[in-house]
């Protein structure tokens, strides 16, 4: 396939990269206007080359074939088109479709080909939103991982440390068990992966792969765990019928030892996501650590954990009787059978993590079966778990057709898990909405309360994993509308609607009562959102769980993208009122702002989470530096007059041939002037020589021309 151009990524790592990447409006404001004109260009003349064009301001995609006739279009995020995201047969010179209907996600690199040919178009759909703050950039995301992410993931929670001299993780001496603290690493690993993907940063992907490899040294077999003299009764019963050779992490439960399902499930999800991200890379961009990690963790995740958790554990059966596996338990719950306690038939965060990991592993296998090998039985097992689990999840949905957006238009919304846990002690005061700390006399349960908003951050992660891997799961859920409805719930019912002072109600159904009163001792509780304070250890806020992960679904609703922008803008607002507000509600380990750490400027913890989840909104350096001052359409040629925001460097018209992911303008006879001092992160700009010019004939990869 015609793909290889040697470039450098954002951190100086050399890699082979496609020279024909078409970024279809992620640049703001430049490309949106260009693409609006492109739409009119396409309608003026028949196509002469294979083109992919996104109509400006919409998700409408036009594919133009080089000649009329019957064509087969394939679009995939994987390089080998083993399991395309979209396959469509059409007659004629072009076909149009909506990216949302096809399940395409803005910011993700896709590959398109016609009729199984070698001529491949790489493109990205644009998200019509970006961060404009200069301090919001890929370099600071990387610095924050280096100074904060490594420390928390490694030293604080895993007892490993990054050795900068030898570029590797090393085990630290310790006597305590790390099983329980692994739960917290997901908060740092997942944003690091999302930022690395958006910023084209192989270095972070490699480091995370190395982290997971060294952590295998701290596992022990299920048999060894069950042989401990002080193993918990719950672990004994649950693991009684499982494979004794499977590896796990031992966790302390008081003076006893056991396995924490939740700890393992939450820790493993970023690992499953990383396997799939590696499967999307060309072979030459995969480091030795990445390849070793994928080959070792595919069986570790699927055989030693997912299969064990889905099929072989012994869990209490709704309706009574012998213990059952997780999938059977879901089936019994959907039949309306009850368990020993009311929440036995609830869906748990463990369930969501396991299903999300199953989707990621199926996606990785679909992209590259050699990298992430699964046999037919394993694929069938994972798909069966997803079919049943998704059915169970859908049974937990509550629709709110009356929900309106900020313009008063009815949009509808959907919550999940309403009432599932309201018999649990955490919810005893969920119906109390006053500022005063409640007493037993005030006890009032909101019978329709959903999950608390902190635990609900698993929901967008779960939905994004299923949505991005629908091609492999065998489950046609979620659809784009499903994403819209759950995002509407977060934006129009949970969010307080104040973009300058954003707060979020305590429960996902939109209610705002007290939560977990007495959970951490007498006098403790999470107050209604406006009464909490992150500096009051007795009455903290549900931060950062109330603001993380939702950026992964920002493409489903412009108001969510606007909210994510507002959360970032808050961190840079220097007004005393804004500073006091963010310090009260969003302080988490560090202030919600840029902070000095070990001599470097980095993001405070909660701010890091938000920016990393939305790294696709980081404006490219070209978008920040380049100002388009005029456009000219002559026949079939689109030209743009550009000026540098720093100083005028060129006022000549330039022809926009290719939008690509290269970091610098190519220095060749076809570059009229270097508009950006040799630094260009998204645009290749060529002179307006016209299709018939002899100067064009040696232009690199001229097949990638848009106009």
Overview of this protein structure:
The chain has 707 residues and is of the alpha+beta class. The chain folds into 3 domains: 1-128, Immunoglobulins (Immunoglobulin-like); 138-394, no CATH class; 399-587, no CATH class. Helices cover 34% and strands 16% of the residues. The protein is built from 19 helices and 24 strands. The strands form 9 sheets. The chain has a 5-stranded mixed beta sheet. Strands 21-22-23-24 form a 4-stranded antiparallel beta sheet. The protein has a 3-stranded antiparallel beta sheet with strand order 4-5-8. A hairpin with an 8-residue loop joins strand 22 (637-644) and strand 23. It is globular and about 75 Å long. 49% of the residues are buried.
Topology summary:
Elements: E1 5-8, E2 14-17, E3 21-24, H1 30-44, E4 51-54, E5 60-64, E6 70-76, E7 86-91, E8 94-98, H2 99-102, E9 110-114, E10 120-125, H3 138-156, E11 160-163, E12 168-171, H4 186-199, H5 202-215, E13 220-221, H6 222-226, H7 233-238, E14 247-248, E15 251-253, E16 256-258, H8 261-279, H9 288-312, H10 326-334, H11 349-367, H12 376-394, E17 397-400, E18 413-416, H13 458-468, H14 470-473, H15 480-494, H16 558-571, H17 576-586, E19 594-597, E20 600-603, H18 605-613, H19 621-625, E21 626-634, E22 637-644, E23 653-659, E24 683-687
Parallel strand pairs: 3-10
Antiparallel strand pairs: 1-2, 4-5, 5-8, 6-7, 6-9, 9-10, 11-12, 13-14, 15-16, 17-18, 19-20, 21-22, 22-23, 23-24
């Amino acid at each position: 396939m015609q793909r290889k151009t040697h470039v450098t990524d954002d951190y100086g790592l050399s890699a082979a990269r496609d020279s024909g990447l078409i970024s279809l409006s992620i640049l703001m404001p430049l490309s949106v206007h260009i693409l609006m004109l492109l739409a009119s260009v396409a309608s003026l003349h028949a196509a002469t080359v294979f083109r992919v064009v996104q109509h400006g301001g919409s998700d409408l995609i036009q594919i133009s074939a080089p000649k009329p006739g019957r064509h087969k279009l394939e679009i995939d995020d994987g390089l080998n088109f083993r399991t395309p995201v979209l396959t469509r047969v059409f007659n004629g010179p072009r076909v149009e479709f909506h990216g949302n209907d096809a399940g395409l996600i803005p910011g993700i690199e896709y590959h398109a080909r016609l009729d199984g040919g070698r001529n491949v178009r790489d493109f990205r759909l644009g998200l019509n939103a970006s961060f404009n703050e200069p301090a919001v950039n890929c370099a600071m995301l990387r610095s924050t991982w280096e100074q904060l992410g490594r420390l928390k993931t490694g030293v604080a929670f895993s007892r490993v440390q990054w050795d900068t001299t030898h570029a590797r993780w090393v085990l630290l001496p310790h006597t305590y068990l790390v099983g329980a603290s692994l739960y917290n690493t997901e908060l740092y690993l997942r944003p690091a992966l999302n930022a690395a993907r958006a910023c084209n940063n192989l270095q972070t992907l490699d480091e995370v792969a190395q982290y997971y490899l060294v952590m295998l040294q701290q596992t022990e077999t299920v048999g060894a765990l069950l042989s401990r003299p002080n193993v918990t009764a719950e672990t004994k019963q649950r693991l009684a019928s499982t494979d004794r050779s499977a590896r796990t992490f031992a966790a302390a439960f008081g003076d006893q030892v056991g396995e924490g399902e939740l700890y393992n499930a939450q820790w493993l999800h970023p690992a499953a996501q990383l396997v799939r991200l590696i499967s999307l890379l060309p072979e030459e961009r995969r480091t030795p650590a990445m390849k070793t990690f994928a080959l070792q963790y595919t069986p570790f995740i699927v055989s030693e954990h997912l299969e064990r958790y889905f099929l072989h554990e012994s869990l209490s059966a709704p309706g009574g009787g012998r213990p059952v596996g997780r999938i059977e338990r879901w089936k019994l719950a959907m039949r309306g059978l009850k368990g020993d306690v009311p929440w036995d038939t609830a869906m748990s965060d463990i369930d969501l993590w396991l299903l999300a990991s199953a989707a990621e592993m199926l996606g990785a296998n679909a992209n590259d079966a050699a990298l992430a090998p699964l046999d037919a039985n394993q694929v069938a097992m994972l798909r069966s778990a997803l079919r049943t689990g998704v059915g169970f999840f859908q049974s937990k949905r509550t629709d709110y057709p009356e929900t309106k957006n900020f313009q008063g238009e009815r949009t509808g919304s959907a919550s999940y898990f309403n009432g599932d846990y309201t018999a649990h002690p955490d919810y005893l005061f969920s119906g109390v909405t006053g500022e005063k700390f409640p007493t037993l006399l005030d006890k009032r349960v909101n019978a329709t309360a959903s999950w608390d908003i902190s635990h609900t951050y698993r929901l967008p992660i779960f939905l994004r994993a299923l949505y991005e891997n629908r091609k492999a799961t065998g489950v046609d859920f979620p659809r784009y509308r499903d994403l819209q409805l759950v995002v509407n719930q977060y934006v129009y019912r949970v969010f307080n609607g104040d973009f300058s002072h954003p707060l979020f109600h305590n429960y996902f159904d939109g209610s705002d009562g007290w939560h977990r009163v007495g959970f951490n001792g007498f006098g403790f509780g999470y107050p209604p959102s406006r009464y909490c304070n992150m500096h009051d250890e007795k009455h903290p806020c549900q931060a950062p769980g109330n603001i993380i992960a939702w950026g992964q679904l920002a493409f489903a609703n412009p108001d969510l993208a606007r909210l994510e922008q507002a959360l970032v803008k808050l961190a840079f607002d220097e007004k005393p009122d804004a500073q006091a507000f963010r310090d009260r509600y969003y302080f988490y380990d560090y202030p919600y702002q840029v902070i000095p750490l070990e001599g470097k400027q980095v993001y405070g913890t909660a701010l890091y989470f938000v920016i990393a989840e939305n790294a696709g909104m980081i404006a490219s350096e070209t978008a920040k530096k380049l100002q388009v001052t005029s456009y000219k359409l002559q026949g079939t040629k689109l030209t743009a007059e550009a000026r540098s925001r720093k100083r005028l460097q060129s006022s000549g018209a330039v022809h926009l041939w290719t939008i690509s992911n290269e970091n610098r303008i190519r220095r060749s006879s076809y570059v009229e002037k270097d508009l950006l001092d040799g630094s260009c992160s998204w645009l290749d700009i060529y002179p307006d020589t016209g299709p018939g010019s002899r100067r064009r004939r040696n232009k690199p990869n001229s097949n990638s021309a848009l106009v």
